[in-house]
Amino acid sequence: MKTMLQTVLLATVAMAFPLAADAAAKKPAAVAKPKTEAAPAAPVAPPTPAPAALAKAPRLLDRQVTLAELGFTEGLSFNGFSGQRDLFFPVPDGVPVSGLRLEGVLDSAIPGPIRAAAQIAIDGRPRWSGVLGTAAVPLALDVARTGQGQDYVRVGFTYGAAWTDDRCADQRLPGGYVTLAPETALHYSYDPAAITSLRAAMAVLPRHVRIALSAAPLSRDHYEAALVLAAELGRQGHKVSFLRLPASLPVEPEQAPAEIIIAPAAELAALKGDGSGTARLLRNGRFPLVALTDGANAQTALYLASDWRALAGGAQVTPRASQPAVKPDPDAIAFTRLGLGQGVQEVVDRGEWQLRLDYAMVPKGKRPAALRIELAPGAAMTSQPQLAHIFVNDLLLRSVTLDGGAQARALTVPLPDGLLGRSNAIRVVLQRQPVAGNCKDAPLASPAQLLPGSAVELVADKADPADFYALGSAFAEGLMVVVPQAALADPANSLALAVKALNGLSPSSQGLQVVLDEGKAPTRPFLLLPGSKLPTGIDLPVAMEEGFVKVVDRQKRLLLDVSGTPGLLVAQLATAGGQPGLVLQSGGSGPIPVPAALALDKGNVAFADASGLLMSLDTLRERAVRVEVGEASAWADWVDRFRILLVAGVWVALTAAVAGIAARWYRSRSKPKA
């Protein structure tokens, strides 16, 4: 009876759990476990990796490139009824990256009657589209790289809107807007252990690059290499800072001293690395370091920071060949160099091309004279003529009616004197009349193109620079940077100041030469750093050594007093040895002041401190202010204040004297002769 009952129970269990019973039947008896160690019926989480496995997992470094870093500091905005723009986010070529993703925010304000939508495409493939309203739309898109050897991710941003579905409604009312926020960024991660070449190390430099300088005084070549490298990285959008190497290397494994090191090889002996090139890839723990060592100079820096770095596929390099400067077109600057791209817009009612001309792009001995606009307006949906408007620095220079339909037009727009400056905004606007009510078809977009033949036309200009921004043309073929001998022992401040001064004024570091202070007349356009001797015969608007310096208006109201002010920087246009240049002087004792930004534009004298530019003025053409130099005297003040009355009084006195002399002469002639 007992045996029969056991048989029935076993059969019941087998029917309820057939798979388990089958597995138990197939399982060898040798691996059966006691009931006390049986696995629970509930699902079990995967086992946690052992500590050894965790130690082998690579620790990745995160990088991001924001829209603001690409030059769109206010974001990218569209309004009206259409807009399209391609953005190119740099990605390190030849470096295994992971976690590529685009994150950002679409900020929009669309009035109720309007229906608007936007589309995001990545490398030509649509990845997101959505209807816009009044709420911000977050973006979070994973990115898969489609092109091998491609060092960028192309993001296409397209906007379109319609006023209403009612075709009888007037379509001319203004539309809404959409803005891709400036903090929109491309994120990625990489394993620092995968950086095995100088090219890869330069490709993964962060936006803020730290250059560590030798603890010992720099040689002239190393100073020159540091200046050239920092200037070139700044032109590529990096922010550069300088620091001194610690007394002992390596530092703590999780604390990278910098991304780039410039020092003798003996000082870097404790760091890991192979080879003996002037530029080497070293390591501090897991962090890669680009090191410029014995024999490195300006050519080494140019090799690493220019397009030649694509050849730096190893862990060391010794560039020896001189790199010739690229000669710009002497007669024009094509719009393709100003960010035109393909120049194609899909236009419903309004298309706009925004370009920027930096004066540093102007070749030496030239100046911009006119804009050559070649515009293919495309076919409009109505018979109304299209309009073109050309703006420079928000000044409307020309409005033209484009008769002839879709036929391409060529326009020449002269540039007035005094309009241009250091950085100049050029806008070309195309306007169409969309279908406006009357139960016609809704307006549709059709393409228009600003053709690549558009350019800034140049003419000869042999005059010396009259404003700071014109130094860009003078520096186009190279310059001398005059450095005091003391700066080699403490180079960080003077290097930082030189980089900020050249930013926006020097188009390239080709031909840049560092000269130690000798007080000799320069043989090419120059930049003279604080502490250097003034060359003999130099012509300065303000002579700092004569005493105090005050800036006042013609009514003697004080505008700026820089008498012995500590931490003050004075920048002046100057001429020495027939060469134009920029002279930087410190207004007081102490370390060289380094302004947060030094955007020298119009004028020939400027004052700055650590916060930035304080004042810029023109001592030659400006009649509203006056620069006082030296010890002022009461009679000089009195003469200046009443100079108009004095001139008038002298004129009246001279007139009266002449009239008196003439009267006596006539009286003497009219007397009868005896």
How is this structure best described in words?
With 674 residues, the protein is an alpha+beta fold. The strands form seven sheets. Strands 11, 12, 13, 14, 15, 16 and 17 form a seven-stranded mixed sheet that branches. A seven-stranded mixed sheet has the order 29-28-30-34-33-35-36. α1 crosses α2 (18-26), α5 (220-235) packs parallel to α6 (298-305) and α5 (220-235) crosses α8.
> In what range is the share of β-strand residues?
25-35%
Which structural class is indicated by helix and strand composition?
Answer: alpha+beta
Helix content: 10-25%
Return residue spans where pLDDT drops below 50 for at least 5 consecutive residues: 1-46, 629-634
Note the gap between the termini: 186 Å
The radius of gyration over CA amounts to 36 Å
Task: Label the overall shape.
Answer: flat
Instruction: Quote the average pLDDT.
Output: 79
Total helical elements: 10
Number of strands: 37
Oligomer: single chain
Q: Main β-sheet, in a few words?
A: 7 strands, mixed
Summarize the structure.
With 674 residues, the chain is of the alpha+beta class. The termini are far apart.
Task: Please supply descriptive tags for the structure shown above.
7-stranded mixed beta sheet, 10 helices, disordered N terminus, alpha+beta, 674 residues, 37 strands
